Amino acid sequence: MGYMHRFTPWEWIAVQEADQPLIAEQIRQDNVGTSYFFSLNRYWRYKASPHGYIRHFENEVRDLVQFVDGVTPWKQAQKIRTYWEVRAHHPMPQFNRPEVAMHRNTMGLLPSHTWETDKKTGKVKAVKDSVRDYQTKTPYPKWVQL
Questions:
Q1: Do 90 and 136 touch, CB atoms closer than 8 A?
Q2: Could you name the domain of life of the organism this protein comes from (predicted)?
Q3: C-alpha torsion angle, residues 103, 136, 144, 146 (rounded to 10)
């Protein structure tokens, strides 16, 4: 009995349970009732209700809420685009981050005319955003009436 087991052996547990009633059975617990975590429309990729930011909605819902906040006028709220809605129409939407996997970027992926390099050090000095074909005009969805 001198050996300390890694996990409690069954007979010790049996002895303890016989010795004193389980505390868990005397205390009133709140483990009955609806589970809010279980199945909120779970299926499509185990979906839970959205608990992120409003900007993660894709469509009228998002724009309506931006409008309801009482700040943004509706005409302007319709023009608001989320990050990935803009990204979807970007000429170069996928690239690998320099600190993670720079070596995965081929020259085709990173058109070098979109930044300026320092001649001596070779470090990137500035990023040119206004290069032709780099920032595109994001098309609005059909339901937007401007």
A1: yes
A2: Eukaryota
A3: 150
Report the sign of the C-alpha dihedral through residues 5, 10, 11, 14, in that order: positive
Identity (one letter) of the amino acid at 96? N
Residues in contact with 108: Cβ distance below 8 Å, sequence separation at least 6, in sequence order? none
Q: HEC string of 66-95?
A: HHHCCCCCHHHHCCCCCHHHHHCCCCCCCC
123, 117 contact by CB (below 8 A): yes
Burial group, residue 85, by CB count within 10 angstroms (0-12, 13-18, 19+)? middle
Contact status, residue 37 vs residue 31, Cβ threshold 8 Å: no
CA distance 86 to 80: 10
pLDDT in tens, 8-18: 777 777 776 66
The pTM for the full model equals 0.36
47 and 41 Cβ atoms separated by less than 8 Å: yes
Encoded tokens for 22? 């389980």
